[in-house]
Design brief:
The protein is an alpha/beta fold and about 300 residues long. It is built from eleven helices and nine strands. The protein has a nine-stranded mixed sheet, with helices on both faces. The longest helix has 18 residues.
């Protein structure tokens, strides 16, 4: 039974990738250069510069916890930054936090003993020289999809994590809030190297978002042509099973209508039960809008500790 389910998932992943526009080859060279290494509270931080052929370089952070033993490989987190209209911030959210977070994530992840990688997505941080609208429109002309290219970048960041001598490539998790939440569950759905997925405040059911008349709450980057002909939010997330999965959300978050959360939750509970591992899926709701609470963060950290 599980073999048939895996085959069906593989077909759906192929279909989902096909909706992501014209993507570069996944073996396209990705150059990485360490441009700074420094001690920080709780560990060490490298600033990396990545570059594809014929594209401007972009920056990322890679952090290791204090006391890292070079003879060992440790679990890692691919951190996905949010949007919030803060195009200047990007990967620096990992170090600084965002207004709707309960603080930066890096200190907590280092304390737990994880290696952490966070990169600037297109239109953010070191890539903010062009607007989201300009990038989206040009890509549309060229047969590309902005979200597809962003997910492609995330999978290439996984390539980098898996290539590092410090990282146990069998224990990689991903997490993020808002846009970073959506990136976490898309990347986990499409790339089986992710072993644990944690999303915070953006498990948006597409049809309920339409019903609530709040499409304006999400940026242009979010929209994939023809997606709703073949997928809904639950069916994308079902591709993560049977790997461990936690979702924490605000009940009053306009970006994630509660009726949609309940719909996705019901489907995923059945999916994980069908896989024989209902304990590996967890959704929690809190009486807040688009805001991370300390209790949300603790739930995510506890889940990561259990499964990663």
């Amino acid at each position: 039974m599980s073999r048939i389910m895996k085959q069906e998932q593989a077909k759906k992943r192929k279909l989902l990738w096909s909706l992501m526009g014209d993507l570069p080859d996944f073996d396209m060279p990705l150059r990485c250069e360490v441009i700074r290494r420094e001690k920080i509270a709780g560990g060490t931080l490298e600033t990396l510069q990545f570059s594809y052929p014929d594209e401007p370089p972009f920056l990322a952070y890679f952090a290791l916890p204090a006391g890292y033993d070079e003879t060992q490989k440790i679990p890692a987190i691919l951190y996905n930054h949010s949007h919030g209209g803060m195009y200047y911030l990007g990967k620096d959210e990992l170090l600084q936090g965002a207004p709707y977070q309960c603080g930066p994530w890096l200190p907590d992840l280092l304390k737990e003993g994880y290696a952490v990688l966070a990169a600037d997505h297109r239109a953010f941080g070191s890539r903010s020289d062009r607007t989201e609208g300009d990038i989206f429109k040009e890509m549309l002309w060229r047969g590309q999809v902005m979200w597809g290219m962003m997910v492609y970048d995330s999978c290439r960041m996984l390539d980098h994590l898996c290539s590092r001598k410090e990282v146990d490539s069998t224990r990689i998790g991903t997490l993020g809030m808002s846009m970073g939440s959506t990136m976490a569950w898309y990347t986990a759905a499409l790339d089986e190297r992710i072993k644990v997925c944690a999303d915070i405040c953006c498990l948006t059911d597409f049809e309920e978002l339409i019903k609530s008349n709040h499409l304006k709450g999400h940026g242009l980057y979010y929209f994939v042509p023809s997606l709703l002909k073949y997928f809904d939010t639950a069916s994308i997330n079902a591709l993560i099973a049977p790997r461990a999965r936690i979702s924490v959300n605000g009940q009053f978050d306009g970006l994630t209508p509660e009726a949609g959360l309940d719909k996705v939750d019901a489907v995923l509970k059945k999916v994980y039960a069908d896989w024989g591992c209902p304990e590996k899926y967890l959704m929690k709701k809190y009486p807040v809008p688009h805001q991370e609470l300390p209790e949300m963060r603790q739930a995510v950290l506890d889940f990561l500790r259990k499964y990663l």
